[in-house]
Write a structure and sequence with these properties.
9 strands, elongated, 147 residues, 9-stranded mixed β-sheet, mainly beta
């Protein structure tokens, strides 16, 4: 019984964290107090590729100031969730994956979004506080990869 309750809590926390990535309005900076100011920018490249097997590749750059606490994650429309480096320097990212069958893409325009989210310890009852600190959503032109 305890195992089921723990699994349910874990699932609920995971769902809350993932929904927080896309629920917040796009932002270029987040402020949570005088000592906890984080700034960030994000730029998605205007072109990407989609191969004959349905694998989509998008890329871009992001930059964020050092975080006073917590970690940053990078997320995309296609399901990328990975750590982000917030050290003040500009970093590149590439997301290559085959979306689910119901989301197959072909050559042409596609609406794509990427974001950097700051995750840190919250106050009870919020276990983790998630703040989107930068995002970019645009129409990306998917083309066939060069051979």
């Amino acid at each position: 019984m305890r195992r089921s309750a723990a699994a349910a809590l874990s699932t609920a926390v995971s769902a809350t964290l993932l929904s927080a990535f896309w629920a917040a309005a796009p932002a270029q900076a987040a402020t949570t107090g005088a000592a906890d100011t984080v700034t960030a920018t994000m730029a998605l490249d205007s072109t990407g590729t989609v191969d004959a097997n349905g694998f989509v590749t998008i890329s871009g750059t992001y930059q964020c100031s050092p975080l006073p606490t917590g970690v940053a994650t990078l997320a995309s429309t296609f399901g990328m969730y990975t750590g982000a480096t917030c050290d003040g320097a500009e970093h590149t990212f590439t997301d290559r994956r085959r979306p689910e069958r119901e989301q197959l893409y072909t050559v042409g325009p596609a609406e794509v979004g990427v974001s950097v989210t700051w995750l840190r310890k919250g106050s009870y009852p919020v276990i983790v506080q998630a703040t989107k600190i930068a995002s970019d959503t645009r129409t990306v032109y998917l083309q066939a990869p060069a051979n």
